[in-house]
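Appendix B. Worked example

We walk through a single record from start to finish. Start with the input: the chain for Carbon starvation protein A, Mesobacillus boroniphilus JCM 21738, length 580.
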Amino acid sequence: MNSLWLAVIGMIVFAIGYRFYSKWVAEKIYRLDPNYVTPAHQYSDGVDFVPTKKMILWGHHFTSVAGAAPIVGPAIAVYWGWLPAFLWVTLGTVFAAGVHDFGTLVLSVRNKGQSVGAITNKLIGKRAKIMFLFIILILVLMVNAVFAWVIANLFVKFPASVLSVFLQIPLAIWIGYAVYKKKKGMLLPSLIALAVMYGAAILASRVPALQIDLVRYFGGADNTVMFGLNGVSMAFLVWIVVLMVYVYIASTLPVWKLLQPRDYINSHQLVVGLLILYAGLIFLQPKVTAPAMNAAANDVSWFPLLFITIACGAISGFHGLVSSGTSSKQLEKETDARFVGYLGAVGEGVLALIAIIAVVTVFATKAEFTAAYSSFAAASAGGLGNFINGAAQLATGIWIPADIARTIVSIIVVSFAATTLDTSVRLMRYIIAEIGSEYNVQALTKTHVATTVAVVSSAALVLLPKGPNGFGSGGYLLWPLFGTSNQLLAGVSLLLISIWLKRQGRNYLVTFIPMVFVFFMTLWAMIQQVVFQWSGYGSGELNMLLFGIGGLILIFVFWIIIEAIAAFGRNNPPPLSKEM
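Next comes the structure step. The output line below is what the pipeline stores for this chain.
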């Protein structure tokens, strides 16, 4: 089968979804008001509440939600074959992710830019809010751990990418200063920054001295360096420490100094990357060698696990945190919410689609695919590497050398993962402060105390579980638990939007139907996971950790659902704010 057909069909579905379905939702369901005074204007402080043009905000929002997850998830999920992954990405984006991301943004804007956790208190009750805040806290903690693990591993495997990634930081600070202090345009400086980054990537790919290879510095993979660690593990440890120091600083700076300009660079990087890959696809038109349904995938059932393996790229609860945590505080006009929220979800679907195509075309034969995807564990461990090799292969279609293409693709993945990591740590700081305020622990409401708690706990989670292959290899095993937690959060957010719509007398089925689907699939998958972890309880610290976190989240979610059912059918709901 020619892989170009997958891209054409997927793009048609996305275009119809944005042009017609999102327009109907905006006008008839969410009823956007161009005259509504958004929180960005109402509470403008130059730090978190900053009125931002929709193109710039879309860049921040898109790159915050389109991290490495819409690449990693599909690259793993094609284990079951390309067809179920393709259908979930395309239909899930249009009917679930779009209305979820768009809806949480509107709901937060109508509630003073508050997070979905705080809004839960108004719509359901205080107990549900506390449970929801703890679910969000656990989720962002896992996001921090998983994405830090992804970045550190890519730095270890692709040392030529390190220089470009670190060059992006001073370039973004320069752009932030030029735009917000000197009132310069952001487009040209961002393109210059991108040219500098890719120039450095080309040089580093060909000049070993420009490659920051810590494994080689620590003596290689076979030598014990210190603390019983070899060069690979030691390099991983150093990169985790460097990343945690970086995100501490980045997440406490005003958004205009680093977060927004770097995300704007990344939005162009994403567009350039997608153009390269889709152009390469058009020229090469590689054949799909992976099966539509993989009959050999019999160790783990695709139903329901597919729907939590591909979280970002179809629907993701983390997007609701970004929409209500940062994007709602920067929305200049309420009518921009469709462009930022729904189109942001579509953009991520486009990324997930090319991730599927890259992986299912990288192998020469079906036999090679089934050998590489011999088990779900093999798919989890090798999925990201398969994507980078497959994407590099597509890039050769427009005459980019394979080694340079691999470096550029790894830079794109790391940049997106770093964006998500920054945003997630910032969100975790907000949530810790909110919990501290709720329980009158004033120390936790302090910016640097809350950030310290976020960074230290994230580092501990990524470093402590050793996994089956030693130090630092437990990160990818957190992925299924991240997926279930992420989807449960999406289900709760859709539930909140449904309650809000019902109380406004509007058609709530738009969010209620995908909510039921997401809850059904995710709870089923999570119960399976918890039971599996229980059956192996005590066999290792990672197994115990996964069982404990999974069981706790499951209890919290059932509690929220019970509270929500009562709130949904309440004849006399508590009074809501005028903004709602």
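Two observations about the output. The longest strand covers residues 224-226. The chain has 22 helices and two strands.
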